[in-house]
Amino acid sequence: MSTKSASGSIRARPGGKWQVRVAGKSRNVSSRRAAERMRRTMLEEHERATQSGHEETTVGVFREIWLADCADRLAPRTVHSYRRILQLEALAPLLPMELHEVTARKLAPIISRVTAEHGRPSGLAAFRSLSAMFGLAERWGYIEMNPFRRMQAPSVPKREPTVPTPIVMERAMRIATPEFAAVLQFAICTGCRRGEIAGLRWGDIDTERNSVIIRRSIDSTPGNGLPKETKTSSTKVISLDEGTLASLAAHKARQSDRGQNNAWVWSRDRDGAIPIRPDRISDLWADVRAQLPEIEGVRFHDIRHATATWLIAAGMDPRTVADRLGHDDVKLTLSTYTAPVAASDRRAATIIGDLLAGARVGLSADVDDGERPGS
User: What is the pLDDT of residues 19-56, one digit of tens each?
Assistant: First the structure.
């Protein structure tokens, strides 16, 4: 049973509850009488919002309101990416529109233009950013309903990571400068992200236990470059092989203060006073890539994929691989690296088949010697 009008709606819910909905906002109460009172209260709130000019707010004005709200809740890099997408020229026709005038029909060609001019990933990013923005406008009473509810997001084919082979990575390290070769060695061994590599201090490396603790990351937002939490807001301990430890020791010897005072492991300065920026790591990788055709199109982040792929293909259990990568859920690891998992599964089938085949051969030999199964 429900009562619905331009003044909002009241609907009975399971368990004796009543839902009140006005201008996109909903509240649950325990009785019909309470629902009527709540509806009047919500209508008064909506009327005050309308009188204060909410319905006359343009998309351009509310964009800044939304970005300011995001800045209070989200990482600077995330806010920067939102702002970059929402400043695309293809979205300019939206800015002078009043929020309540924006409809799915008006949005569709604009999102299509972003997709056509900048590619599907940017089209999807624009769709998601605007949808989140209009979602806040709905929750705050600027509009009755988020128009993106009536739209379908652009489809973006999943990008399969380009995984270099161990031989190719060895060639890349021989081409790189000694300093960057140490970065590559560490990246391959640990599977760390750019920011985590940039955020490494000498005090994080335990040469007695042959391990490193990943405590922090370096923000890659332009104009920032400051330390921050890791992507998962947690620390992780990763074992290091002898080759990586030797590479780090040689790199430490090249620093002017030989890693004293807990300096940054990779720095813009010889004394390790300032950490290297994550985008500088990408630039150095691009220099190597330009000299090695085998890694054309391989991103630095794909080295992380290579670490996981090599380990799983070699038979390492996914839980251990997930722990090294910092994945809380092993399902993420399994869904991301389906190719090596499938190869390992095929090897498992082969092993079972070989065991059964061996059993058949042994059983046949027994029969040939005059024995019968079960005798």
Answer: 888 776 677 777 888 788 778 777 776 665 555 555 56
Q: Single out the residue of 114, 98, 298 nearest to residue 188, CA to CA.
A: 298
pLDDT digits (tens, 9 = 90+) for 240-276: 999 999 999 999 888 766 656 678 999 877 777 889 9
Evaluate whether 11 touches 2 at the Cβ level (below 8 Å): yes
The answer to whether the CB of 136 falls within 8 A of the CB of 40 is no
pLDDT number for residue 337? 66
Contact (CB, 8 A) for 122 and 115: yes
pLDDT over 90, % of the chain = 41
pLDDT band at 356; cut points 50, 70, 90 = confident
Quote the pLDDT of residue 260. Answer: 65
Q: How far apart are CA 334 and CA 338, in angstroms?
A: 6
HSE value, Cβ hemisphere, 13 Å, CA-based, for 276: 21
DSSP character at residue 18: E
Distance CA 183, CA 266 (A): 8
Strands (E), the chain: 2-5, 8-13, 17-22, 25-29, 205-206, 211-214, 217-218, 227-228, 236-239
201 three-class SS: strand
Least Cα distance to 318 among 336, 300, 302, 299 occurs for 336
Backbone angles phi, psi at 228, to 5 degrees: -150, 180
* Rg of the chain in Å (alpha carbons): 29
The amino acid present at 287, given as its one-letter code, is D
Residue 20 in contact with residue 38, Cβ under 8 Å?
yes
Query: Can you read off the two tokens belonging to residue 353?
Result: 């088949």
